[in-house]
Amino acid sequence: MIAEGAANDAGAVLGAESMSSGNAVFPPPDDPEPRDRQPFGVLTPNPPLPEGHPGANGQRFFTIQRVNGNGANGKNDGVSGGHRHTLEESDRVKKNSVQRYLLKEAREKKKASSVRAMSTQNQPSQKTYHTKATGLAALTVSNHSSENELKLYGSCFCPFVQRVWIALEAKGIPYQYIEVDPYKKPQSLLEVNPRGLVPALRHGDWGSHESTVLLEYLEDLNTGPPLLPPGDAKLRAYCRLWADFINRNIVPNFYRVLQEQDEQKQISNAQELKDAFATLVNAADSQGPFFLGANISFVDVQVAPWIIRLSRVLKPYRAWPDPDAGSRWGAWVNAIEANEHVKATTSDDELYIDSYERYAQNRPNTSLLASAINSGRSLP
Amino acid sequence: MIAEGAANDAGAVLGAESMSSGNAVFPPPDDPEPRDRQPFGVLTPNPPLPEGHPGANGQRFFTIQRVNGNGANGKNDGVSGGHRHTLEESDRVKKNSVQRYLLKEAREKKKASSVRAMSTQNQPSQKTYHTKATGLAALTVSNHSSENELKLYGSCFCPFVQRVWIALEAKGIPYQYIEVDPYKKPQSLLEVNPRGLVPALRHGDWGSHESTVLLEYLEDLNTGPPLLPPGDAKLRAYCRLWADFINRNIVPNFYRVLQEQDEQKQISNAQELKDAFATLVNAADSQGPFFLGANISFVDVQVAPWIIRLSRVLKPYRAWPDPDAGSRWGAWVNAIEANEHVKATTSDDELYIDSYERYAQNRPNTSLLASAINSGRSLP
């Protein structure tokens, strides 16, 4: 409902001239094409399970997706094409592969539990990630636990989730928070993001993911205070430019400092991260305390989760220094820490210490992100 | 002028409720703070040179930027702080470093010219990048050579530039195209982007860079046909999600295929790129031919420069296969190739063959992007 109203408002911005142009990229509203053909991003509900299906008792362990004419052509050349066999044959092959998958999963589970047992015998006990917010964030979760058409799938320690969470709080948009164990992705999350990464938003029968995409989506809803300055194309571009800088320089460097095990490399990685923060501070309003001035906005929300993890994660694990008193940087950190929406989405310190130990020890299979950092590939 | 008009229109979208909110992120328009304090992204014109200054004859070789209280604190801890010496001392140090820089540059120039001479003696002659568009793109350059307050700094072979160029053409926004040799960045470009990367846009006394940021800027101008569907927050998010996919998966994989010298790795990299294109095709409208349907839009513009470089660069250098006739993928490639705005910004084939040879041979110092791919870091 929020979305529809906002959509109509925003549509009115477009002048008659561009809508009537023969060259218009989008057809006028009275032409149902091409949206009716394919409702982009709309989630298809699972059909009811047949009677006697083991999943009817709550155990849902496979879905069979029939694909015809929309997949690869089997030649591994990246080109789509029709299936070369019948749908029945396709179902049979997929059922077999599901069975193989389940067997493999059972084997790995068995192996993993023995590894856990070994590690408690031979090694100091390892801390693990939390699956439930604590402190003020727990209160916010409890205030947003009732059913809502707008659902945020998040994990309490995840900084990408916190971006979207801060924005929802700052805008006062009603939402439901759904805590997800990122190592045991629920089916409802996989429906919104097949890769199972958080944050993911479900809005009615539609869903999307990627924190920056979701922040832009919340802006486009035009509900509550804007985080990008409305109507100022140049200032909006400036904010997006520095948000992009955060995603390219601050986020990956944060994990490089944390995951690096070699002490000399930790130091040079930390220097890169410090330089990136210094560059960002130089781009900010000189008075501050926030990026654009007195109030929190888009760039602050993009970087806040990593700023609050400096004292909570990088300081204990990598001796990250506190800001100098009275510096512009210190004023920004303090403003972020004191902001009510940041506080409302932040758990107690212990949650971060525990949840990031696996990164600081660079344990295998920590996350797709951790593996991307280790292999020098784009973040997932 | 375009920007101001559009800004006012878009500002009207925001309802009275959110503007009057005490919690509003941006102050109401009658409050000059905080914009007056710091005009973000506004370029400071160089002051007139003093009489007798060597630069007065057209030779401009250094600028001295006085910084006090906005730089690092000298402790290399990423924290800003006031300078510890006077502005005069700062000027002296900077003049010396400019002199050192000029000496170093002269030495390297001498060395480079001798390397060039050697390479023509001992190696097969190497092709080099073009610095002037050819074919239909040359015609477009010549039609956009006269002075305009909106300036696109571009290099004729650069796909990131072509994104912005296609969007300007599709929207019919008046602009001036300024060809830049990316290996000899002019001062006018460095004023807009201190790193000297193209594309960069200058709009009056303001400038910005990064192709995706610039595409959003052109959308925010609300001039000409939109590329993101106006008023449809969900479909806009869908487009941004897949634009993000292109930037994370298709763009870096394109260069991994081209720069890789090991044949087995070329094959596995090509498979990753093919898989990424197949995923993108599956996300597109099933009828097409473009991503959202009958017309070119945001996602097409983001990916078009790499699609047209498949047949022009990856096919000759890495035997990239043509699309299967009649496939959805083939229909998309054909639609991109036949689009008038893509054609208007595309040079003759030889320009791409020549300009990308240095990537295909993975020569050192090819570009920041090529180095980032080699070292497994985020793209610049």
Automatic annotation (TrEMBL), chains A, B:
Name the record gives this protein: Glutathione S-transferase
One Pfam family in the UniProt entry: GST_N_3
Basic and acidic residues composition bias: residue spans: 85-94
Domain GST C-terminal: 232-368
Cited CDD domains: GST_N_family
Segments for region (Disordered): 1-94, 109-130
InterPro entries (alphabetical): Glutathione-S-Trfase_C-like, Glutathione-S-Trfase_C_sf, Glutathione_S-Trfase, Glutathione_S-Trfase_N, GST_Omega/HSP26, Thioredoxin-like_sf
UniProt feature, compositional bias: Polar residues: 60-70, 116-128
GO cellular component: cytoplasm
Domain GST N-terminal intervals: 148-226
